[in-house]
Amino acid sequence: KLTDHLRAQSPTAYEKENFSTAEPGEGIPGDSGPMGLITPEERSPEMPSMEMPKRPAAFGASSGQVEFGSIDLKTDGGDSDDEELYNKALRMVLESKKPSVSMIQRRLKVGFARAGRLMDLMEERGIVGPYLGSKPRELVFDDPDGLLRRLDEIEREKTR
After folding, report:
1. By CB atoms within 10 Å of each CB, which of 12, 85, 86, 110 scores lowest?
2. Domain extents for the chain?
């Protein structure tokens, strides 16, 4: 059926010379030039404009600086959930002696971002070494057993 339909079409509709000499926008209905190019007439009202804003955004522009909040996970004092989570992660890393973000994720049931942030804090504090790709980080703290004893003391002080 398809071949019969194509044979019935007039040959002039598909002749090469009808298209080869035509300029973009001529000869072919709906042709506006290079494929994928959207002309202003074709743009729907929902499409964003490509014009750059004339002035900076109002948020933070008045002072010239934008302050971002930070999360401080301290190991001394306080009853924060983050502090408790950090202490659990630290204990786990010190006991296993093979720290990795994925281990913190699995054992503490936290997401990648939080586990990564905990690991970054340990790196900043000199407990674990830098990121080594797929390998676990190295434990670089001089006295992991002493740090475990200190964590035990902190937990005992909290229960008093």
Report:
1. 12
2. 81-159
